[in-house]
Amino acid sequence: MTRPTACLALADGTVFMGRGFGAAGETVAELCFNTAMTGYQEIMTDPSYAGQVVTFTFPHVGNTGITPEDDETGDPVAEGMVVKWDPTEPSSWRAARDLSGWLAARGRIGMGGVDTRRLTRAIRQQGAPHVALAHDPEGAFDIEALVAKARAFPGLVGMDLARDVSTRQSYRWSEGKWGWPDGHVAAPEGGPRVVAVDYGAKRNILRSLVHVGCDVTVLPATATAEDVLALEPDGLFLSNGPGDPAATGAYAVPMIREVIETGLPTFGICLGHQMLALALGAGTVKMNHGHHGANHPVKDLGTGKVEITSMNHGFTVDAQTLPEGVTQTHVSLFDGTNCGLRVEGRPVFSVQYHPEASPGPHDSAYLFDRFRDAIDARRGAAR
Ligand SMILES: NC(=O)CC[C@H](N)C(=O)O
Description:
The protein is of the alpha/beta class. Helix 1 (40-44) links the parallel strand 3 (25-34) and strand 4 (52-56). The strands form 3 sheets. It has a 10-stranded mixed sheet, with helices on both faces. A 7-stranded mixed β-barrel has the order 1-2-6-5-4-3-7. Strands 9-10 form a two-stranded antiparallel ribbon. It has 2 domains: 6-152, Carbamoyl-phosphate synthase small subunit, N-terminal domain (Glucose Oxidase, domain 1, 3-Layer(bba) Sandwich), CATH 3.50.30.20; 162-382, Class I glutamine amidotransferase (GATase) domain (Rossmann fold, 3-Layer(aba) Sandwich), CATH 3.40.50. Helix 8 (245-261) crosses helix 9. 25% of the residues lie in helices and 31% in strands. The chain has helices at residues 40-44, 99-105, 116-126, 143-152, 162-165, 203-211, 225-230, 245-261, 271-279, 366-382; strands at residues 6-10, 15-22, 25-34, 52-56, 80-82, 109-112, 130-135, 171-173, 175-178, 184-186, 193-198, 215-220, 235-238, 266-269, 284-300, 306-317, 326-332, 338-343, 348-351. It is globular, with a radius of gyration of 21 Å. The protein binds glutamine. Glutamine is lined by residues 48, 240-243, 245, 270-271, 312-315.
């Protein structure tokens, strides 16, 4: 066998050797696994993956290359990727470049040639492990040092990463969803004003808000209630994002509490859902290995209908802690964890999963319409 050029060391001392691609170097992170069969580019550029290396259980990546329009943010955010096979040469008319070159240009490490079934079992058994991932074209690894670095990684509990990946300045977002062959369809004039607080927002969420006719202004994660209300919005959106919701909640919760008191329609996704729950007085906990994939069944407790959803979270809202007046609306059919909530008598709701997909099925896209309807109902009532 040729000399391994990549090494993945878990904090418990388990070591995987493989072939490096993308950038050379070293990184420490939490390791999770994602079961999506498509969408490696969207996954690697989802800001919620800050501080994480992603194992892909689907064995092939690279097939569709890299297409700039498919970025969920400007740069890859996940620290690295681990896959079974080396990336395939791209074969798509949309591909602008190949996966490995793109990762290299963005300083992100890839590792192929790994028994990802064994690795995924390890993640399920021990909980998302802390790891060191190294890529050296010469294949010179100090394995003990890598294990020690994995052990020294502090973990995501207590980490506020949203502030790092959030926009520094507010901006208007006007690009809609992909309307082939015309590209992204722009926002219509005169739609309701929505303030989207960016804790690490995926672009397809902003596009989905535009798709239902909203005029979207994005604010940094640290925006205060005063900043939000100064824009005289018709609705508040709380985005997805990385890290521990409790840590980001330290500054987000006071803002959310104050804004929802005004009766403003509010919609949260993933980290936004978790922080809305915290603002309402519930608690969040770290999961064993989380939910990351594009095939997660979720039950709508109101209708009994099952949605196949896109998921990416390692923390969860503890449903036992939801206070009176807050209803659990959705649950995961994998493990019964909370997947949605609604405040009784108020246009305030959120979901743990990703109705914007990217990648994943579109079963839950109706939630953006529900937000728009809540905004219209309040605007109508105010007239
Ligand atoms: N996608 C997200 O918003 C993730 C939320 C949070 N960082 C978690 O891991 O649970």
